[in-house]
Amino acid sequence: MNPNIEIKGISEGLLATIGEGDWTEIRQALLELIQTQADFFKGADLTLNVGDHEIKAADLGKLRDQISENDVILRGLISKSPRTEENAKSLGLTTHFERPQPERSGKAFDTSVGGDEAIFVQRTLRSGNNIIYPGHVVVIGDVNPGAEIISGGNIIVWGRLRGTVHAGASGDETALVCALELAPTQLRIAETVSITPSSKKKPKPEVASLKDGQVIAEVWDIHKSKK
């Protein structure tokens, strides 16, 4: 990932913070990032924090269209430049957002003990609900058929997992999927898709991981957890 582009999850979708540097090069890097991680960004609402970069309305409009071509919606733009902010408003982009806070709604949060970045969702995900996040995703509740989680890291479901999940979406083959009942419509780790067994087993806590190129489900033993 380009060091001048930082992606985080917020309540409005994804936030891409743009650092200093040549805007043309950073803009191209952002588009390449969206294209190379299409599964992760697909269907997401994207907000750009461009800092001091001064961007013309025509350039913003072109960037919005190019992002849209990759099935991503440019929802808003945050800027320290009054001119850039006015250009964003002229295109109908949102320019003011509440500062993300750690809440039950699943916003990003920082930890003081040096842990990994994750979101926490305390509710059942029903058909049509989607979570797309670059870090780990923790759900306290069920994930029903028709719901989808795409995570750059691990996915932990304290409930029944019967929807579609993609862990390690950015290519992390060490990612895990854990659930009290592991019965997904589709389970994917990095680029490997699991085959759901046809036989119905007695529900039990399980963890799925990638071993020798295959997704393997084992009894979820926290003492043997990899992460």
Report on this model:
By secondary structure, this protein is an alpha/beta fold. The protein has 2 domains: 86 residues, ACT domain (Alpha-Beta Plaits), CATH 3.30.70.260; 107 residues, 3 Solenoid (Pectate Lyase C-like). It contains 4 helices and 15 strands. The strands form 3 sheets. It has a 6-stranded mixed sheet with strand order 5-7-9-11-14-15, with no helix packed on it. It has a 5-stranded mixed sheet with strand order 6-8-10-12-13. A 4-stranded mixed sheet has the order 1-2-3-4. The two termini are 23 Å apart. About 7% of the residues have low confidence.
The shape is: elongated
Q: Write the H/E string, N to C.
A: EEHHEHEHEEEEEEEEEEE
Strand order of the largest sheet: 5-7-9-11-14-15
- Domain count: the total is 2
- Strand residue percentage: 25-35%
What is the CATH topology classification name of the largest domain?
Pectate Lyase C-like
CATH architecture of the largest domain: 3 Solenoid
Average pLDDT: 84
How much helicity do the residues have? 10-25%
Radius of gyration: 19 Å
Number of helices: 4
**Total number of beta strands:** 15
Taking the sheet with the most strands, its summary is: 6 strands, mixed
Helix/strand-derived category reads alpha/beta
- CATH class assignment of the largest domain: Mainly Beta
Distance between the termini: 23 Å
